[in-house]
């Protein structure tokens, strides 16, 4: 992509990078209020039968996913005009989604700054090894990577690891303000959820809250995975890496039915989001439809996305993902 075309593309999407208070307010109302209402109903239904509470909680996961998208936009400072208002909203929705605001914000911004850059992997990303790295890895490192990339581990155990371990601790280089924010989040969760367990009982509490946390977490990891893991996704060495190409070629357009785009806060328009993270989620679809060069991004349907589960290693020489089986056939040795 030529330099002038990149400038033109950035110029074309810039008008959409603005907050619409009416849309933001409506989205907060039609997301947070139903979430809280359904959780209350789930708690009441438990007294009728525990299975009804679980079913209701599963439905609530729809609104928890949307709450996370609001949290995500607040982290980018795109949801409300003033940063202090985004900070407040981010902390509130971060509590509801079990994500510490400042910790996740910093890690996610690092992800955006280096997505697709082979030399800046490791923070806020799905773990990706190149063919060369896997070839040189020890048996233990290969086994660890295989376990990590197993769908059962990534999508079933992953939500629990993310919520109860990863989100609870800061990295060694985290600043004091971030550490305080994380521990305040932890303490508030402990007090509120501990109080609910005391009042409702363990069984009642987990029937209401476990399904929503698990399902929303699993779908959240899946969305993040599929938006950067497709056969010809963009990865490049730092010297050749390009932000615009990383956005358009390294982030997918997940073509979902309208109702699923609504549920997921339009995050399927991920190429638009990576090109300009200041575009609020409710403007991503309009941006994609209006700016025709964005139509060249890799489109993945719901059915096609399932095939991405087989992609495990990135082949720099052919600029595409390959499977473990393909790696084994190439090397004619156990992988």
Automatic annotation (TrEMBL):
Residues 50-293 form the Fatty acid desaturase domain. GO terms for biological process: lipid metabolic process. It comes from Staphylococcus equorum. GO terms for molecular function: oxidoreductase activity, acting on paired donors, with oxidation of a pair of donors resulting in the reduction of molecular oxygen to two molecules of water. The chain crosses the membrane at residues 21-46, 52-74, 152-170, 182-200, 206-226. InterPro entries: FA_desaturase_dom, Fatty_acid_desaturase. It comes from the Bacteria. CDD domains: Delta12-FADS-like (cd03507). Keywords: Membrane, Transmembrane, Transmembrane helix. The keyword Transmembrane helix applies. This is Fatty acid desaturase. GO terms for cellular component: membrane.
């Amino acid at each position: 992509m030529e330099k002038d075309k990149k400038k033109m593309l950035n110029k074309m999407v810039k008008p959409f990078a603005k907050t619409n208070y009416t849309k933001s307010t409506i989205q907060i109302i039609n997301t947070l209020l139903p979430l809280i209402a359904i959780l209350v109903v789930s708690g009441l239904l438990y007294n009728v039968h525990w299975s009804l509470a679980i079913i209701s909680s599963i439905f609530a996961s729809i609104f928890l996913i949307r709450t996370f998208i609001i949290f995500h936009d607040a982290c980018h400072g795109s949801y409300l005009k003033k940063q202090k208002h985004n900070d407040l909203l981010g902390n509130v929705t971060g509590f509801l989604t079990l994500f510490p605001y400042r910790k996740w914000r910093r890690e996610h911004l690092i992800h955006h700054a280096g997505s697709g850059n082979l030399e800046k992997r490791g923070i806020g990303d799905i773990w990706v090894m190149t063919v060369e790295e896997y070839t040189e890895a020890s048996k233990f490192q290969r086994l660890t990577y295989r376990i990590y990339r197993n769908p059962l581990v990534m999508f079933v155990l992953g939500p629990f690891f993310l919520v109860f371990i990863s989100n609870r601790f800061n990295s060694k280089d985290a600043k004091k303000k971030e550490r305080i924010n994380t521990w305040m989040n932890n303490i508030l969760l402990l007090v509120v959820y501990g109080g609910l367990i005391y009042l409702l009982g363990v069984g009642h509490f987990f029937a209401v809250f476990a399904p929503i946390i698990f399902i929303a977490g699993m779908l959240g990891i899946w969305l993040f995975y599929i938006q950067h893991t497709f056969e010809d996704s963009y990865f490049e060495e730092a010297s050749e890496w390009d932000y615009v190409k990383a956005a358009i070629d390294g982030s997918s357009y997940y073509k979902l039915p309208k109702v699923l785009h609504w549920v997921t806060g339009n995050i399927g328009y991920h190429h638009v989001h990576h090109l300009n993270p200041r575009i609020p989620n409710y403007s991503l679809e309009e941006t994609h439809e209006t700016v025709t060069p964005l139509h060249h991004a890799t489109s993945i349907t719901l059915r096609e996305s399932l095939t991405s589960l087989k992609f495990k290693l990135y082949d720099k020489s052919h600029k595409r993902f390959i499977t473990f089986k393909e790696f084994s056939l190439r090397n004619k040795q156990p992988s």
